[in-house]
Write a structure and sequence with these properties.
Blueprint: E1 6-7, H1 19-31, H2 42-61, E2 70-73, H3 76-94, E3 102-106, H4 111-122, E4 127-131, H5 141-147, E5 152-158, H6 170-180, E6 185-189, E7 208-212, E8 224-228, H7 274-285, H8 289-307, E9 312-315, E10 327-331, H9 336-347, E11 349-350, E12 352-354, H10 359-365, E13 372-375, H11 383-399
Parallel strand pairs: 1-11, 3-4, 3-5, 5-6
Antiparallel strand pairs: 2-8, 7-8, 9-10, 10-13, 12-13
The chain binds 4'-deoxy-4'-aminopyridoxal-5'-phosphate (PMP).
4'-deoxy-4'-aminopyridoxal-5'-phosphate binds next to helix 3.
């Protein structure tokens, strides 16, 4: 195995993390690792402070109205599950007119959304409409509106596709939808965009924003968050439209058997990943515009290089405009998993090959059950590494010609 590794799989999880991330985690474990919210002693208080600081950083990052609305989770899948189960269970518990809740989702969604919804459709608990996307991975506002009806309780749309990198014009799309459905809950999966692009939950009128801490934000795995809007969880908690079945200790209201109803405790049972959030704070503090510019420059180099290789098909948008630092391609005659395995074994290059947890998108772009090769540069990627990668692809394309 060649050494060092050329890591081009940052859309799965970013690596290497900035040095300050590991340092903050070691510092936390060495000096401050009490159980946050439990016990009034110094180490517990220090651990609580870490969670509050992480909540604060994430609140500012996406322009949430207050930190209490930022629920700390174990990743984006965890946040998506909390939101989807939360909204559907709240609705099913209170619906008494014999109708079923309806959910609108799209062909670009990740399995964290699709599989979670699937268990409700197969058990007949909800109706669901899946809105298609075009070849570039855009989902059109008109099609979303057409899919909604008066029973639609949740519309869920990814901010950017994890397969193509295509970024949806979320602000405009939501504005159009809100003209007809002002009260419907709208969730935007920000797994692929948080840290890379500006997000404003208030200006864009988003109700639920699941975030991954370990991708664009460059924090540790096992960290994430869910922003919950006042429409989804009003200050008058009795009118909450998110019901969490997960129960447990919160460090607050301990003598009672009822869960606290106030945010964030209502949706945050159990011991949080405080060491992970200590790392995430450092990661967010280290984010700069230059980091993003560098990632996009490296993505541009990948795209331009691949365009010049005969036998390579690139999917989605033609340039870096409107995309995250992600490129999907295939080499004619080579299975994407074979390309991935060869890059790994012969060149020490880490990419992802196959179907990228978004099966409906692969169907839509014609890559079916084989999928494609996804290359996603990160802040640590260099131009030389991209050139190494392009040389390897060029050689494979010649072999398969
Ligand atoms: N949604 C999208 C669009 C994703 O790309 C991913 C991660 N691949 C997830 C959700 C799940 O995120 P996590 O790995 O943090 O659970």
């Amino acid at each position: 195995m060649p050494d060092p590794i050329i890591y081009l799989d940052n859309a799965a999880t970013s690596w290497p993390k900035p040095d300050c991330v590991g340092e903050a985690m070691v510092d936390f474990l060495t000096h401050r690792a009490g159980n946050p919210g439990r016990g009034g002693h110094r180490l517990a208080r220090e651990a609580s402070l870490v969670l509050e600081q992480a909540r604060d950083r994430l609140t500012k990052l996406v322009h949430a109205p207050c930190p209490q609305r930022m629920i700390l989770t174990h990743g984006c899948t965890d946040a998506l599950n909390l939101a989807i189960h939360g909204v559907l269970r709240a609705d099913i518990r209170t619906r008494c007119d014999g109708t079923k809740p309806h959910v609108v989702t799209t062909a670009i969604e990740h399995n964290a959304v699709l599989r979670t919804l699937h268990c409700y459709t197969t058990s007949g608990l909800i109706d669901m409409t899946i809105v298609p996307c075009d070849e570039q991975g855009f989902v059109h506002a008109d099609a979303l509106i057409e899919a909604c009806n008066e029973c639609t309780v949740l519309l869920t749309l990814s901010h950017a596709s994890n397969v193509l990198g295509t970024i949806q014009p979320i602000k405009e799309t939501i504005r159009t939808i809100r003209e007809q459905y002002p009260d419907m809950l709208i969730m935007v999966d920000a797994a692929q965009t948080a840290g890379h692009f500006e997000i404003d939950v208030q200006d864009w009128d988003i109700d639920l924003l699941p975030i991954a801490g370990h991708k664009g934000l460059r924090g540790p795995t096992g960290t994430g968050a869910l922003y919950v809007s006042p429409r989804a969880y009003p200050d008058d908690c009795d009118k909450s439209r998110v019901f969490c079945e997960r129960r447990g200790g919160t460090g607050s209201m301990a003598p009672g058997l009822e869960m606290p109803t106030k945010l964030p405790d209502a949706l945050e049972a159990g011991t949080s990943n405080a060491v992970g959030f200590a790392g995430l704070i450092a990661a967010i503090d280290a984010l700069t515009h230059e980091v993003h510019e560098h990632e996009m420059e490296m993505t541009d180099r990948v795209l331009k290089g691949l365009h010049e290789i005969e036998g390579v098909t690139i999917y989605g948008l033609p340039s870096i405009k409107g995309r995250t630092p992600v490129v999907l391609f295939n080499i004619e005659g080579a299975h994407p998993r074979e390309v991935m395995a060869k890059l790994d074994a012969e060149h020490g290059i880490a990419v992802r090959g196959g179907v990228h947890c978004a099966p409906l998108l692969h169907e839509a772009i014609g890559t079916g059950s084989d999928g494609g090769v996804r290359v996603s540069p990160g802040s640590g990627t260099t131009a030389e590494q991209i050139d190494c990668f392009l040389d390897a692809i060029r050689a494979m394309a010649v072999q398969h010609a």
